[in-house]
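Today's session is about reading a structure prediction critically. Students often jump straight to the picture, but the first step is always the sequence itself: look for stretches that repeat, for charged clusters, for runs of hydrophobic residues. Only then move on to the predicted structure, which in these notes is written as discrete structure tokens rather than atom positions. Here is the chain we will use throughout the hour.
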Amino acid sequence: MSASIEPFPHRLYLPFPELDAHFDDELTQRFGISPEGTSYGQLRMLKEAIPGGQVPYWCRTAMLEPYLVHFDSIRDASDALRNMQRSWAPYAFTCFRRMSLIQEKLPHVNTKPRAFPVNIPQSPIGLYTLLDEHTMLCSAKTSSSLPCGTLSLIEDHENPPSRAYLKLEEALCVAHSHFGVDLPNENSRCFDAGACPGGWTWVLVQLGASVFAVDRSPLDDRLMNLSTVQFTAHDAFTFEPQDIGPFDWVCSDVICYPERLLEWIKKWIASGKTKRMICTIKLQGSTDWNLISQFAAIPDSLVLHLSYNKHELTFIHCGK
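Below is the predicted structure for this chain, in token form.
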């Protein structure tokens, strides 16, 4: 019994669940290439290469150096993977039982929901999938250190005022991993712009921070009664940084045009009244990719699509 391994000539991309249409639009509008190609479940092989080897925002992970493996047995498949590197995550769209048996013979990788805060691993994690019972696509080199590019958090269905809290939890995990910054704590003063009903304020309070929460509508009553929450009914974007700052973190999940958000972000960074920002870029209609590139060009910043984002991206800034 043995396995034969050969380089696969094309990168493969795994879009976020139920967001394939946005992935296709990004290929067409941002990169100017056709979304046509071959699909292995949701895993996509494109006919055209993406310019500059970039990875689309709507792709949760990409197989950057894939190989095609022909194998006889489950042991052959797992040995072939082990010989490439230690950690592997499965993406299954067929041969589910056989994939689970292969995964059992590999070092354990936690793919279950995890309690916040999560330390995102720094070591690479490979991705593999079966095409049939004896053929496998795999790549030790991927664009994400998370299994299948996904961070899954244990949800609290009782206490947060909205599910939007998961976006901030994930974004804070990314900020800690990518920039090496500490999470908000009891010594932190935070600004939650457009805070209603209070999902993001809830996360910050749970971490011990004090929060200046601003929205035209009040927060959930449970938050309004907390001594660590100062609420003001106002348009959050009209406050001047020098009038209300400084803040350790400035956060916004408010619905607004990306152009206005970009202007607001630049104002806060230029003011020196905060070094850390997490903002949701709400996309409306056709995405202006030139505008998104302006967010990404801000020094010490990152733009990405979170596992808990919908038709939106997240901007994270952690200045020195």
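Discussion point for the tutorial: The chain has two domains: 3-149, 165-318.
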